[in-house]
From TrEMBL, chain B:
Family statement: Belongs to the universal stress protein A family.
Pfam families: Usp
Organism annotation: [Kitasatospora] papulosa
UniProt-listed SUPFAM superfamilies: Adenine nucleotide alpha hydrolases-like
InterPro entries: Rossmann-like_a/b/a_fold, Universal_stress_UspA, UspA
Domain annotation UspA: ranges: 3-135
Gene3D superfamilies (alphabetical): HUPs (3.40.50.620)
Protein name: Universal stress protein
Length: 497, 138
């Protein structure tokens, strides 16, 4: 036999020197796609809590911070697969792990449709084709085409876009900040056509609008920070090479917070509460409308920022979803053909196309049955996000349970923080489920089986998951024989000392 | 010196393997089978699952390659390198003092190749040793 050096490639090195400050900053921002998130969520949040929108945006960061800590420590312990699916399986057994993996893959799959829809709508608005954007058939056709093209790009695995994306993402934050500066300038100069109000520190009070509104607002708010934990994980991956990536992780957090808070302030101050209350039914386009009012002929800058942000995150959403499916299939938690790697392009082509197919089917079905489908499915997504984040938080404490009492730091960051985060998210989840069981509280205001559409969507996805899981349990039992474990003590002390 | 071959299990690589074995046998040199395992696309938490799947596919393919080479009486070495295919070949070529790099080409139009990022195309521009491109059988 020939000498086999196949194992000689160092398994722990993901090209550590390859990631510089700008790259790390971009990855952190990219995963959360600020312009798209803010465009999707600012309308609904303002409609819910009025002037206290900045407070809710800020408060949403708290559970995220705790959960990001869980992601950081779990990623430290188990880098070889590195998904919620893998971690929860290790800490809490295959059943919980499978459901976590299902939730994470589904969130990815389900958000692609609304991302592509936003990219198409804002793209058309940016180039002045407003009538196309309002024509449902044209918009849906373009959205489906866009998903297919973006999936094709993911399968081919083009590296062409990396540099372009860096520029687009930094530009998108810059454009949002331009919007904020112009809006606030016009508020203070008194040149707005609305009932503007001067910003006040009181707006940062998340409890201003009462408990129920805060709960719904927080659940949406979690969505805008969704993905931010990648920035935290990234800092670990390259920790030893230089301090630049760690700083980039912190900076991307600061930039996100500043961007979201200032956009919140700008929107509320510029439009005034009366206008926002009147247009509460127009959440989808409130940001587009305001962009036009604030920027005049330059509104295409903001629209383009949102469109490119949504476009970029279509791609960055398809890739993790398909990789999660790949990871699950490799451990026999999904049928083996999902693990197929295209010999030509070296990408998981089967799972990638499946992600696209489900995303398209989902998008078309939901837009048929619900008028305000995108926002109903966004709310349903928030339920799934809250679910798998909470699961990850608990898994962290469980996986490290033998090390929690070793130091104050361990206890706070690995135990208490993630568990509090998980508790907050579970509380949000339960409260929202109670809220959503009343159809009047959904965006479309319609009733499905006597419940609100987002809840029905969420329940359907969970039930599908459970059914598929049980079927797979009997067809491919090997994954279900995996046993719970705890973190390797050597690893904890090796890293901590 | 040695002969470096870019090998995966694609149809294009099968003929390249035969040609590379012929070349290595003719010069009586070692054949180095190289597989660049870096996945395309951005890094992320799920990157490693993708990376491992590719490396595993690569190792499976390389074993078949080694078996064919040894059947032809050529000694073979396997290299799974954590780089994109073109970079991996260049790196292996310099490390093993390659006489020639052998790669299979897909025989598609130059525009398609440029868009999809053709490995032979990159090698022709970047390599400092001769590159032998083997078209797929018609």
């Amino acid at each position: 036999m020939a000498e086999d050096r196949a194992g000689s490639a160092p398994p722990a090195s993901l090209k550590p020197d390859a990631i510089g400050f700008v790259d790390a900053l971009v990855i952190g921002l990219n995963a959360t796609s600020p312009a798209y998130s803010v465009a999707a969520v600012i309308g609904p949040i303002v409609a819910l809590v009025g002037i206290y929108a900045p407070g809710v945006l800020f408060a949403s960061f708290v559970p995220m911070l705790f959960i990001a800590s869980a992601f950081y420590y779990l990623n430290k312990a188990d880098q070889d697969c590195g998904t919620t699916f893998s971690w929860v399986t290790r800490a809490m057994g295959p059943w919980a792990g499978w459901l976590g993996g299902w939730a994470i893959a589904m969130t990815g799959v389900l958000v692609v449709g609304s991302l592509a829809d936003i990219a198409v709508s804002f793209g058309l608005l940016a180039v002045g084709l407003d009538s196309w954007a309002e024509n449902t058939f044209v918009r849906q056709l373009l959205t489906v085409l866009l998903i297919v093209v973006m999936t094709g790009l993911c399968v081919i695995g083009t590296e062409l876009s990396a540099k372009v994306q860096n520029v687009l993402i930094l530009a998108q934050v810059a454009f949002l900040l331009v919007f904020v500066i112009v809006a606030l300038y016009r508020v203070y100069a008194g040149t707005t056509s609305f009932d503007s109000v001067r910003p006040s520190a009181e707006w940062l009070n998340p409890f201003g609008a009462g408990g129920a509104a805060l709960t719904s607002g927080l659940l949406l708010g979690v969505f805008i920070y969704w993905g931010w934990e990648s920035a935290v994980n990234l800092t670990e991956e390259v920790e030893d090479s230089a301090s630049a990536p760690g700083k980039a992780g912190v900076w991307s957090t600061v930039i996100l917070l500043v961007t979201y808070l200032s956009v919140g302030f700008a929107v509320v101050a510029f439009a005034g509460t009366a206008y926002l209350a009147e247009n509460a039914g127009e959440e989808e386009f409130i940001f587009a409308l305001l962009a036009r009012e604030v920027m005049g002929g330059w509104d295409w800058i903001v629209l383009l920022a949102v469109a490119t942000s949504a476009l970029a995150s279509t791609q960055t959403t398809i890739i993790p979803a398909s990789r999660t499916a790949l990871s699950m299939a490799r451990r026999r938690a999904l049928p083996a053909h999902f693990a197929r790697i295209s010999p030509r392009f070296r990408t998981p082509d089967v799972s990638t196309w499946w992600v696209a197919a489900i995303a398209i089917a989902w998008y078309l079905v939901v837009s048929q049955i619900s008028e305000n489908a995108l926002f109903d499915s966004l709310t349903a997504l928030s339920l799934l996000i809250a679910f798998y984040y909470a699961l990850t938080g608990v898994a962290c404490a469980v996986y490290y349970r033998r090390h929690l009492t070793e130091s104050m730091r361990n206890f706070l960051l690995i135990g208490l923080g993630p568990v509090v985060g998980a508790g907050l998210l579970t509380w949000l989840l339960v409260r929202s489920v109670m809220d959503m069981s009343d159809p009047a509280n959904s965006y479309s205001g319609t009733s499905w089986f006597g419940l609100g559409p987002p809840l029905v969507i969420g329940i359907c996805i969970s039930l599908m998951g459970v059914v598929i899981m049980v079927v797979l349990r009997f067809r491919t039992p090997s994954f279900w024989h995996e046993r719970r474990g705890v973190v390797d003590p050597g690893l904890v002390h090796g890293k901590e000392s | 010196m040695s002969v470096v071959l870019g090998y995966d299990e694609s149809p294009g690589a099968a003929r390249a393997l035969r040609v590379a074995i012929d070349v290595a046998a003719a010069f009586d040199e070692r054949l180095v089978l190289v597989y660049g395992a870096a996945p395309p696309g951005p890094t992320g938490e799920e990157y490693r699952a993708h990376y491992e799947a590719i490396a595993q596919a690569g190792r499976a393919g390389l074993e078949h390659g080694v078996a064919s080479a040894e059947a032809a009486g050529v000694s073979a070495t396997v290299e799974v390198i954590d780089l994109s295919p073109a970079q991996a070949l260049i790196e292996a070529a310099s490390r093993y003092g390659a006489r020639v790099i052998v790669v299979g080409s897909w025989g598609e139009s130059p525009i398609r190749g440029a868009l999809l990022g053709s490995t032979p195309h990159k090698l022709l521009h970047l390599s400092t040793v001769p590159v032998l491109c083997v078209p797929t059988e018609a």
